[in-house]
Amino acid sequence: MNSSATGQSPIKGWCLPAFAEVAAAFSANFSDREEIGASVCVFHRGEQVVNLWGGVADPQSGRAWDEDTICIIWSATKPATALCIHLLAERGQLDLDAAIAEYWPAYAAEGKATTTTRMVLDHTAGVPVVSAPLRPDCLLDPGYMAEQLAAQAPFWEPGSRTAYHPLTGGFILAELIRRVDGRDLGRFFAEEISSPLGLDFWIGLPEAQEPRAAPIISYRPPRDEPPGRFLLEARRIGSLQNLFLFNHGDWKSKRVNTPEGRQAVIGAASGMTNAAGLAGLYAALRPGGPLGFSEATLASFGTASSATHLDGMLLQPLRFGPGFMLRMDNRTHARGDSLLIGPRAFGHVGAGGSVGFYDPDADLAFAYVMNRQGPGFLLNPRGQSLVDAAYAGIAG
Question: Which of 28, 92, 101, 295 has its CA 20 to 30 A from that of 147?
Fold first, then answer.
């Protein structure tokens, strides 16, 4: 596909003819689904078959979304952090099933002596939030967050219940990396994963990369949209949902679109990349890939290590592998969101609809990154339409 104009938004890049449905769905997102700026990239059998981008990166200035535009991908960052942990485990430096306290003695406090790294990866560690009041700049200080999490009592017996850890898990894993390896998360990821793979992907954006960043446009629900179960529960003081929304500082509300906010090393949320960078990460997880993971390790990524009909945080059915979200078909669940990917695929969504995954059965790596957030916790119609089109390309 050559550069072309579709509706009011120019779409640039290319795709192989077999994947023309991806280009059509991408264009429809701009014309029919209020997309503002975005990119989509697909690898099939290790070869890039789609790389498209378009729209506006910064509505205030009118700057176009270019091939090298990057933006925050929110929780789609989590697998990048998890892969750092898995690298250490693959090298024998960390045991996923050993107590975290073996590497970080202070973490044993308040009943967490038996918590393992695997429990953090699959959201069963029991500390999805911090109950003590946190500083406004808390998410910009990994050391401070590590201290708070070491002192935090679990909300239930670690390993006994699944509840999505929106932010806390990333800081626990980052502290483990620092204690086991000596490098902070941002440096470890850059030196061991993104740089060797040639990926334009950062956890803690260097100042020199700032001019390419696209600011995030928050989702604003319609006034007549009834609040879902999560928001209703968030009104209850002391609930997990209330603590998450109102006790994680002001990074999301005030800093996320600032250089300071993009430089923050938040292992669960602050990854900066585009679709080519995110899809490239997943393309590297093919068997025999450059990161050197064994077939058993790669197979574990797509195997559910925790699953629930009612996640303790998001209050809907969820399934996790060790650091990854798995297929979730919640179309028959009241107000439940879905992630409709292959049965052995593994990946992760980000708040507002960004997504990346690898499907070993289809040998498909996929990513979608955008600046305008959409509704829901998992995929919304913009992202799912692109995923469906990618699968249609390999089926045809």
Answer: 92
Model pLDDT, residue 140: 98
Instruction: Give me the catalytic one of 75, 194, 306, 354.
Output: 75
Residue 325 inside a domain? The answer is yes
Output the domain CATH number for residue 246: 3.40.710.10
Number of independent structural domains in the chain: 1
* Residue 335 pLDDT > 80: no
Does 101 fall in a domain?
Answer: no
* Tokens representing residue 115 in the block: 């918590």
Q: Are 22 and 50 in contact (CB under 8 A)?
A: yes
Q: Give a yes or no: residue 86 inside a domain.
A: no
> Look-up: residue for tokens 């969101």?
337
Separation between Cα atoms, residue 330 and residue 328, nearest integer Å: 6
Distance of CA 196 to the CA centre of its chain: 21
Query: For 45-67, b where at least 16 C-beta lie within 10 A, e where not — what string?
Result: eeebbbbbbbbbbbeeeebbbbe
According to DSSP H, which parts of the chain are helical? 20-32, 78-90, 117-121, 142-151, 168-181, 185-189, 195-197, 229-234, 240-246, 259-263, 275-283, 295-301, 381-395
Quick check: 325 pLDDT over 70?
A: yes
pLDDT bucket at 221, cuts 50 / 70 / 90 = confident
Q: How far is residue 6 from each of residues 54, 66, 371, 374, measured CA to CA in Å?
A: 10, 16, 19, 21
Residue 134's alpha-carbon distances to 138, 148, 173, 254, in angstroms, are 6, 8, 19, 15
How many CA atoms lie within 13 Å of 186's alpha carbon, on the beta-carbon side?
Answer: 17
Segments of the chain assigned E as strands: 4-6, 9-15, 37-44, 47-58, 63-64, 71-72, 202-203, 271-273, 306-308, 318-321, 324-325, 346-349, 355-359, 364-370
Distance of CA 277 to the CA centre of its chain: 13
Averaged pLDDT, 69-92: 98
> CA nearest 256: which of 227, 307, 217?
217
C-beta of residue 172 within 8 angstroms of C-beta of residue 149: yes
User: Is 82 in a helix, a strand, or coil?
Assistant: helix
Nearest to 349 by CA among 307, 306, 378: 378
Which domain, by its residues, includes 288?
Answer: 4-80+188-395
Dist CA 345 CA 359 (whole Å): 4
| Cα separation, 153 vs 158, whole angstroms | 10
Give domain status of residue 216, yes or no: yes
Is 131 annotated as catalytic?
A: no
